[in-house]
Amino acid sequence: xxxxGPGPSSLTVxxxxxxxxxxxxxxxxxxxxLNRDEGATMQNLEARTIGKVSRRLIPFLIICYFVxxxxxxxxxxxxxxxNKALGLTATMFGFGSGVFFLTYFIFEVPSNLFLDRFGARxxxxxxxxxxxxxxxxxxxxxxxxxxxxxxDETTFYxxxxxxxxxxxxxxxxxxxxxxxxxxxxxxxxxxxSFMAAIPxxxxxxxxxxxxxxxxxxxxxxxxxxxxxxxxxxxxxxLAFVTYFYLTDRPSDAHWLEPDERAxxxxxxxxxxxxxxxxxxxxLWEVMYNPRVWALAVVYFxxxxxxxxxxxWLPQIIKAFGLSNAMTGWVTAIPYAVGAAFMVWYGYRSxxxxxxxxxxxxALAIAAAGIAGSTLTGNPxxxxxxxxxxxxxxxxxxxxxxxxxxxxxxxxxAAAGIAVINSIGNLAGFAGPYAMGWIKDTTGSFxxxxxxxxxxxxxxxxxxxxxxxxxxxxxxxxxxxxLKEG
Length: 485
Prior knowledge:
Blueprint: H1 8-17, H2 26-86, H3 90-118, H4 120-137, H5 141-148, H6 152-167, H7 170-179, H8 187-195, H9 197-212, H10 223-245, H11 258-278, H12 283-287, H13 290-310, H14 313-318, H15 324-352, H16 356-372, H17 379-400, H18 402-405, H19 410-424, H20 427-442, H21 446-465
């Protein structure tokens, strides 16, 4: 019997053969080590690429949408003095505020298809300069009414309608643009960061708007006219910046290193093939797809909450007996809270890889907050209720837009996103108009607020009934993507 024990050759066998030392051959161990190194390298490349793209695009797009949304909703603050100056009733104001969305609806899909054809850089710049000019023209309503003989009310309607034509395609165009740059696993947090411009524009813009309204008599203009002029100017400036700053697609991004550009292009192409293997929809199939229409109804309920409340919130707050300036500061509170919740909620959805329940829960919060605002006459409790509702409304937005982008790609994605957004934005007409009509009929906003809260509940039910394939958001044939948050 050998008393010396195993020699060097035997140790090699024991360590690498696995009969007494771990079950893996030397080649397997070397291969596993190599795979780990390659995996770490790919993760570093992914993190570096996504970080660089995020820093390049997201802050600029936030600024653009901040200006867009401010120009869209500043009519709500202008109404504090404009309605009296132009002789507008609540119903007239609600119709004029909402007619923007009727023309927006008509031109939404064509605009998004033009963006896909001509590129985001040129088309978004065109949209911004058009809406900047028309938003500024709102200040000229009295003069234009006298020159054309249309009257103040009709001129108000016409300019709002033209503004809808000009801005059509901007938001869905940006959502589509983000799908060209970010893999699915990142879209909840990215869209959340971008769409934080919605509540931030109101949180920051409300106090500023309240102060601008105090410029009565400056240059012979009313404060509400200065509001439109001052807040339209940035859009015109940003149009020129957009043309020279944005890059249409990753393959054109010379500010990325070659390996970063190659990784991003390959990853997005692989995700597109994966989606099309399951949902290979043509342009016309998208237009009639039941899921697209169901999501459009969901978005209708969400938009009704957003604009149905948003256009009227300054007047609701003003009724507490506050000055215009103080109304601006108080109105900012729900939006500031909603902005913080929105970014956190998008990260939470991404980190858990879950979309449907997150969307439904946020819609329930929106309904509860908006309905709750009708249960108290206490100003503090009312603002708290609106803040809760804002968390729900703005928390829904980034997670909702991951649902269609998980199954649509290419031109079909451009069309599908536009269909959902355009139909949903019809609530931008219906919500404010219904609120105004109910206010004139009943003398109270209560019925209108309960109506939009009910629409949020309907949207929640539809989301729960819809399925969502989480596998379509995973990296095709790769290790799980990096998680953040």
